[in-house]
Amino acid sequence: MKKLTLTLALLLSLMILVVPAFADQLRPVVGIVQIVNHNSLDASREGFLRALAEEGYVDGQNMTVIYRNAQGDQATLNSIADYLVGEQVDLILAIATSSAQAVANKTETIPILGTAITDYLSANLVKSYEAPGVNVSGTTDMNPIKEQLAMIPELVPTVKTIGLIYTSSEVNSQQQIIVAKEEIEKMGLAWEEVTVNNTNDVQQAVLSLAEKCDAIYIPTDNTLASAMPIVYEVSVDKKIPVVTGAGEMVRQGGTFTLGLDYEKLGYQTGKMAAKILRDGADISTMPIESQTDYNYYVNQSAMDAIGIAVPEKLLPYSEPMVTPVPQ
Hints:
This protein is an alpha/beta fold. It folds into 2 domains: 2-141 and 262-290, Rossmann fold (3-Layer(aba) Sandwich), CATH 3.40.50; 145-259 and 294-319, 3-Layer(aba) Sandwich (Rossmann fold), CATH 3.40.50. The chain is built from 12 helices and 13 strands. The strands form 3 sheets. It has a 6-stranded parallel β-sheet with strand order 2-1-3-4-5-11, with helices on both faces. Strands 7-6-8-9 form a 4-stranded parallel β-sheet, sandwiched between helices. Helix 2 packs parallel to helix 11 (262-279), helix 3 packs across helix 4 and helix 7 (202-210) runs parallel beside helix 9. It starts with a helix and ends in an 8-residue tail after the last strand.
């Protein structure tokens, strides 16, 4: 009897040790790689995690999240990609084009969902939007460029030339600028462009455009998005409005736009992730999704400083700037 009792006790002890280990094996591990900190990308990540939580996946409870930020450094980004693939995570969220390219170059088997990516095709991430055909899918942040540019003559009737500024190495930005040039020419207006390599170039680039242009357009560009307070400082000093590709960029220093909500975009991506983690959905057959619900964003602080009256229809969307200007 004592031997039987001892045997049962040993078996119970083994079960106590094995069950948590087995549970860890069942707990999905999600890697998140983000190219740089700025509000739009941060909002995408937060929306992604919120959607997963609603679907029953909570970090530290029944899911493990490994989050890494490259802080704008390509070498660091590649190291993060190596690490996540080496950890054999169950799914990777890649925030921004360069993040997705880095991890896609490292694995053909781990599902990769992208968000805050403008053009998956030009970035060579998928074979088509309808059927990616590879281990990559996600959501696109292609913004309504035509409608954004159309706001300029409405608010600045005397506009003749629109300045374009973007990062030369960002594929997303390049594609948006191509579209912007075509739309500006259709409007019968002229354009001037200047590129930057990093945030150190931003102030001088905006200054150079301010001397030649009546308004400036900035696409959803990661480098410019992280430097919007600098853009604000120049734009109010030179009394030149800045239209941006994203609403968060207006809140950080732009003047106005019609843009998407990055938190909602990340949320949409999180819903896609749940289908993969819970239902075993085949990512190669999941179409790239886009957001169709756009909002107006108006920086009241910038409008007042530049001297542009907010039209009545835009008053409900007018808010003061949320980020302090650098001293």
